[in-house]
Specification:
Length: 784
Amino acid sequence: MSELSGLSAVLIGAGFALLIGGASWSLFVGMRARREAGATFAANARLEAMLASAPALAMTVRTDGRVECPQRLADWFGLAGLPRYLDDLAASDAGLLPEDLAALSADVTAAQKSGRAFSRALRVRGSARSLMIRGARVPKAFQAPGGVILWVFDATDTEDEIARLGEAIGHATALYEDLSGVIQAAPMPMWYRGADLRLAMVNSQYIHAVEASSAEDVIARGLELVEGSGVGGPLGNAVLARDARSVQSQTMPATIRGERRMLRVYDAPLSTGGVAGFAIDIEDLEQARARLKRFDDAQRAMLDRLSAGVVQFGPDRSLVFCNQPFRRLFAMKTEWLADRPEFDRVLERMREAKRLPEVRDFPGWKAERRDWFLAAGGGQEEEWHLPGGAHLRVVAQPLPDGGLLLIFEDRTEQVQLASARDTLLRVRTATFENLYEALGVFAADGRLQLWNNKFRLVWGFEEEFLATHPRVDVLAEAASRQLANPARASLIADLVRAATVERQQRGGRVGFADGRHFEFAAVPLPDGNGLFTMLDISDSRRIERALRDRNEALEAADRIKTSFVATMSYELRTPLTSISGFAEMLNEGYAGKLTAAASGYVEAILQSVERLGMLVDEVLDLTQAEGKAPELERQSIDLGAVARAAADVVTPLASKRKLDFAIEIVPTTGAITGDAKRLQQVIEHLLRHAVAGTPAGGRVLLHTDGTDTAARIVVSDDGAGMSPQAVTRAFDRFAQPGITRDGERALGLGLPLAKQFVEAHGGTIELVSEPGQGTLITAILPRR
């Protein structure tokens, strides 16, 4: 029991000790919490004071849309009470605009989901207040997880200032862009140098001039427009402008895109310490000045070559220039003119040389001419009749600079020529009146200006009618009664119109009612008028009619002759066939064996029959083909083989005449499309012509060759040749004068037939010959 009591006492004592310790700890913690609470309240009071005086007010937006904000912020929004939800920030007549509230709600939602901060400027409805809102997710210490804290700034004054500054910046920017655009579009290089005189900005013309890729390239490489440095260089001019604080200009040469140009460079100092510059290309101006000087020199040189005298006086009325004709015309010495005499002295010297008109009051006359310098009506013109019969035309032209230009034209010869012209006109009139032809001159408007008596008599016009200078239409109507066909009177108007308007020469013929015939012609005259002529051709018309009747009779006789020749040719074939047949029978021995002499006679008969048959064929070919091309059997033929066959036929004849017969068939002769029989006849005729005209021991050549488009046949000989008259008629039928070589060529049908057959193949034939030089005949035949 006693042990239990002792243990209990210990436990109780321990319990009291723990209780006392716990109470002490609680008291200590309470005292510390009280101190901390006091500090927290003080800190909260300071924070509330800071928030109250802060330029921004806070608003918390929870996840369910509820908002927490002070009354001051509600006043900023123009709300009567505190908003409970974010949508309460927009009232019917206060708060935010619906579109601003929707944008703010979207920003808040995005911040809640992604934690992205945002910033937005808003306007309060019905107020000039501008608010700047910056939002972000609330820190974790806030008891609003997922909420967003909005800091609202009153930016009314700031926005106004920003707007004002923005307008000013926009205006300045627009001005800068306009100025930059003007600088970039300027037709001259422009640049800006900084305070260190290094290039800081250039325009497009500068870039183009130095052949750079960009402005940055120019600035990086420091490409100068003008070469050189020092006082005479571009930097020297810029230094002078900067130090003198005034615009400096200097003329400098530069090479722009490989071309040497002269530039006028201007440098202007700026308030920043830099220098702006630009360059004007004065190369064209310098060249224009040089050209003007050359033109002035050339003009004076040209004036020296004029026939008219020219003298120029300056504003001070002293002589500036005179040409050589002026010195000769007025006997002026170069030494005296070198002193630049005044206008009055020059007139006095002209009077001394007796090159002025004779006047009673010379001082007054001179004073009147002195007024030429001040003439307001422009140039003055006078005619001076000088002693000795000379005649001068004087033109006085005041100059813009106050000077005077005088031109003296010697018209003495012109006056004499005018007198001679009047004499010629009188002679022409007399000639005009006595011509056999009827003549009339019509003006460009169709009126009759001049006429001779023959013209009036032919048409039977009255002088009073012609004196009215009638138009050609009226005159043609009056003349129609004289014509066999009155409608032909319109020919007169057509011819005159062609001569005066169209400037063409035309003619025609017309018959009169009395049987006369006239030939009309209208000729344009140099002065724009038209000359109408009429020639009586009544006699020539009668002769023409007689000649026409005779020609028709001759043509009929020629047709009868051709028919007769053709008929006779056909009729000759029957006896020729009989003679040839009987001669061949005799030659074959049907009538018994012949002696050697008789055989020779029979051979001669056969050769003669053959030649006569060939002549008959030629005559038939000429008569049948007259007026039309002969019929051909066209096919592809070897022209070389045809030529060789023709040569084989003529070879015995050449051997008989002891001629050197050469044959040259070149491989280029080739094939052509044509009639083999006719072409062989052509070559035979040409060869026979050559053999017949070549004496014994002579040489005849047959040569053929060709190209891709044509073949050529050449036959030449070294015989006696032909006269020019014979050459011109070599291809005429039955007319080859000078060819009497043997009976075979007496009719001369070979060359005309050869020409006929060659032209039927679309070819050409040409004969060249001179007496004593032989003959050359060339025939060209197309391949197709």
